[in-house]
């Protein structure tokens, strides 16, 4: 399994439809400060279902929609499509290629689709949950996040390790059950 392509349209600074073709192995994105490198990574997290505006480096969710520039008016929607090569069957779906799409309008929530079929956020999360990518996994290490981990209290650091080991969700469930 590997990420095959990523298309951004109206997402942050990517007003026009922009497609990045990716290859297996390591991809590097280089460019001047403010040219949109981190926005590409935000798009990746967003299309996989990220729900936190802060994780997307914004104040509110609609901050991901192209806000306009001096020469270009703002847009009403943001769209991202991620195509994953699944020829090794790592994702639990009967397709050799899987495209996850997320669209968001200024006046409301998000729409998701898997291979062109409208679905729920839960379906996207379940598709990705055992793949090692997806929501709430520390597979995306943001700028400054390494610092945060190094400066964390022992309790916070234990949280990171528990999450990586996959026990955090069970501990949260246990705590919830004990509170009842
Ligand atoms: P650095 O090297 O400093 O980390 P970068 O290449 O990672 O830079 P980004 O943070 O991806 O840069 O891009 C920042 C740019 O994206 C800013 O110019 C900002 O104005 C623009 N931007 C962010 N959100 C939007 C939006 N909703 N609409 C239009 N432009 C946006
Ligand atoms: Mg950056």
Automatic annotation (TrEMBL):
It comes from the Bacteria. It is found in: Cytoplasm. ATP binds at residues 32-39. Contains large globular domains required for ATP hydrolysis at each terminus and a third globular domain forming a flexible hinge near the middle of the molecule. These domains are separated by coiled-coil structures. Required for chromosome condensation and partitioning. Belongs to the SMC family. Homodimer. This is Chromosome partition protein Smc. The lineage of its organism: Bacteria, Bacillati, Actinomycetota, Actinomycetes, Propionibacteriales. The gene is smc. The chain holds residues 1 to 180 of 1184 of the full protein.
